Amino acid sequence: MAAAAVTSSEEGAKVQVFVDWLQVNGAELRGCTINSSPKGFGIFADAQGSSDVSDDDVLVVVPLELAITPMRVLQEPLLGPECRSMFEQGHVDDRFLIILFLTFERLRPLSSWKPYLDMLPTRFGNPLWFSDDDFLELKGTNLYDATLLQKKKLLSLYHDKVEPLLNKLLLLDGVSESNVSFDHFLWANSVFWSRALNLPLPHSFVFPQNQEDVGACPSTPATDSHQKGKSLLSLLLFLCLIPVFKIQDQVPGATSVGSGDTVWVEGLVPGIDFCNHDLKPVATWEVDGTGSVSKVPFSMYLLSVAQNPIPNKEITISYGDKGNEELLYLYGFVIENNPDDYLMVHYPVEAIPSIPFSDSKGQLLEAQKAQLRCLLPKSLLDHGFFPQTTSKVRESDEKEKAARSCNFSWSGQRKIPTYVNKLVFPEDFMTGLRTIAMQEDEIYKFSAMLEELVESRPDEQPSETEVRMAVWEACGDSGALQLLVDLLNAKMMKLEENSGSEEQDAGLLEEACVLESHDQPRELEEEEGKRMISRNKWSSVVYRRGQKQLTRLFLKEAEHALHLALSSDHC
């Protein structure tokens, strides 16, 4: 109890220093405060309401000058020139600039950013921070291979660029004995990917007309004593391993940036970045270029979407419609029964050279702009042969079906399949699989049809749509669907080979009691026969169970579609 009280007291003092730092730098908390939460720190409505709450439900306002963006990094006296040189030579991207900045400032004993940096987590729940035992729980999943590759890339980047540069800069900053380590760089990488936002900044802020305009040269934040201090790493696009993850986009409807063009810039906004994610958020964030809403020009503000914030209730936002693969990889948490979960399926690009007629098929794939990787959101199942729930058909689904129907018309030699409106797999992906699966006679049939078209229009090349239609008419869907069934079976086999069945995962979660930290009393292990597992292991099991469930359900859809396609071929 005494240790807990000391920890609580230390956290309270740390929060107060940070809040004072925010206020010194022009930020405002209106009717809310920052407190500890199960996820670290969060923003909470005041205990008994507050007269500070504005009539327009603005809860937090942070000047854009306080945001950590690539522009700020390039203006830093010590770091800026080095970063500008690397950036201009194309050695790094803008994300790396921010990550390098965070690493550097954390190592500076007298950093003016210390009140903010002290509030950030020291460890994270993403797989880069897993113990060896916990990491093995991910074996067989996309994240296992992706994390191994990312760590290798980060280590190479650290030793090649980060470590020598930081040692040089810290020496110039007066730090004679620096303690630079890979863990510092890994920490900064995780801070960026778990907290960065995609900010719609006013053009006039990013590109001011004169040097006196706001944003021209972001000032170093003031410390509590009002004194000034001295003054990109791309998420790996693991080819066909994981989807391209995005930084938190602006919440839909939040576009109050004032007049003029908008420039999208990734960055961290101290204060607002303490908002945690929820499927039912109670707030959204916006950028105010003119100050018409927040009363602070060139600011970002947190807006309540609840009529009356409940006292002491955490104020949450949405990070977007993200599946557990993305949530675990970027933010270090998962959501049980996540409605936005998805399955990534791909045909291995490295296998193409070994298939028959690989050169011709490669050209065909390019001509059709076909995809060999696709994301299958759980929501697609609602519109398939075996719907899980009854839900409203989305506009995007209707457009997909319309595009699919349009493609199924050529010379009338092959009938439009009766199952076309129940096929849940994206047409771009099906186009790729059809091309990969084409047999020799189907290639000749396709070539004859295209030759006939070219002869009738000697001055005009076949369009992408016409090439797609000819491929479909030549081979239909059965070859593509058989290939898809094989891919999904292989995916399920890989998942189960390393961690057992979906039912075994469900049983493990039912028996689990999550150990939140190594300091938690071990006597809880015997409570009601529960099995004590770490939070990281629990997250891994939730994620991989969801992948097995989706693989099973989409495999069922593919097998049924294959049966119908084969029946149609024999008619």
From TrEMBL:
Question: Which InterPro entries does the UniProt record give?
Answer: SET_dom_sf (IPR046341), SETD3_SETD6_MTase (IPR050600)
Q: Which domain of life is it from?
A: Eukaryota
Q: What is this protein called?
A: SET domain-containing protein
> Which species is the source of this protein?
Brassica napus
